[in-house]
């Protein structure tokens, strides 16, 4: 099962991640709710979606840019990645067809390469393309949980190796992600189970919570997408971050906390306030569209 595979992969990486956490810069949170997250609650943790929740845009696209720079594939493949990224940013939703195409492209690109090679390259790509695209506000939310002594996990449909790099660089506990099959440390071009998307995320979080003896009613989850409503509904403290239209409506109906960093506007119900500073997304979208037009 996708959830079990992801949970197992995440648990194996936890000890290494705990030993290499980086200290994050202090962020101003003057109106923080004093009772949440609860300090010293060993039964609580936080689960963060990645794309458009923690990071502007799609991690897989940024990873693809880095692989293209290193001659892993041709220009026409980069154009396809760019167009998928432009759609993701303009539409603000996860389109299943685009996700399937991106996943298939990624699997074909990494087939035959060593896992260790991709992990090393992932560290470089994080510095080149991803670090500056982390939402400061969401990072502050994650840090609030860490400061309270709670564990924080990324939960994403992106490859688990990418997710683990990002989690480690942000000082988080670990990551749940889509698991690509490898034999003797070499990618086969197949998946282990299904992509970690939609209900599969909830399954993975539930499996990890059971393994880590967490009480989901005391945990928090954060996402931008209505596809993650199953995961958000699992926990006692769901948050809609940069929500798409369907999630925003659902969150309002259930009185979930909201925060939108794309415009800087205050959400209808604010939980943990975050630091100021909103990154722009227009530049990446324009570049992606320009690439597409250039190839027409």
TrEMBL record:
Q: Which domain of life is it from?
A: Bacteria
Q: Which GO terms describe its molecular function?
A: hydrolase activity
Print the keywords alphabetically.
Answer: Hydrolase, Membrane, Transmembrane, Transmembrane helix
Membrane listed as a keyword: yes
Among InterPro entries, the record links this protein to:
HAD-like_SerB, HAD-like_sf, HAD_hydro_SerB1, HAD_sf
Membrane-spanning segments:
270-291
A matching Pfam family: HAD
The record's similarity note reads:
Belongs to the HAD-like hydrolase superfamily. SerB family.
Query: Could you identify this protein by its name?
Result: Hydrolase
Q: Which organism is it from?
A: Streptomyces asoensis
State the organism's lineage: Bacteria, Bacillati, Actinomycetota, Actinomycetes, Kitasatosporales
């Amino acid at each position: 099962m996708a959830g079990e595979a992801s949970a197992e992969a995440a648990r194996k990486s936890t000890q290494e991640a705990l030993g290499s956490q980086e200290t994050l810069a202090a962020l101003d949170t003057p109106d923080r709710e004093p009772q949440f997250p609860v300090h010293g609650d060993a039964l609580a943790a936080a689960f963060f979606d990645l794309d458009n929740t923690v990071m502007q845009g799609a991690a897989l696209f940024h990873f693809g840019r880095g692989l293209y720079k290193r001659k892993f594939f041709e220009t026409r493949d980069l154009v396809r990645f760019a167009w998928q990224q432009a759609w993701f940013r303009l539409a603000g939703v996860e389109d299943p067809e685009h996700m399937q195409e991106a996943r298939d492209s990624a699997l074909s690109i990494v087939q035959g390469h060593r896992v260790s090679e991709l992990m090393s390259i992932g560290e470089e790509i994080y510095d080149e393309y991803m670090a500056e695209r982390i939402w400061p506000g969401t990072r502050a939310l994650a840090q609030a949980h860490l400061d309270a002594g709670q564990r924080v996990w990324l939960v994403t449909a992106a490859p688990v190796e990418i997710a683990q790099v990002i989690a480690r660089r942000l000082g988080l506990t670990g990551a749940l992600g889509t698991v690509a099959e490898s034999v003797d440390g070499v990618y086969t071009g197949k998946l282990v189970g299904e992509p970690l998307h939609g209900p599969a995320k909830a399954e993975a979080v539930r499996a990890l919570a059971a393994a880590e003896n967490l009480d989901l009613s005391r945990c928090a989850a954060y996402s931008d997408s209505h596809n993650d409503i199953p995961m958000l509904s699992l926990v006692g403290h769901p948050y809609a971050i940069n929500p798409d239209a369907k999630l925003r409506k659902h969150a309002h109906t259930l009185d979930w906390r909201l925060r939108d960093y794309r415009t800087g506007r205050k959400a209808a119900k604010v939980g943990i306030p975050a630091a100021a500073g909103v990154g722009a997304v227009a530049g990446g979208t324009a570049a992606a569209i320009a690439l597409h037009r250039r190839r027409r």
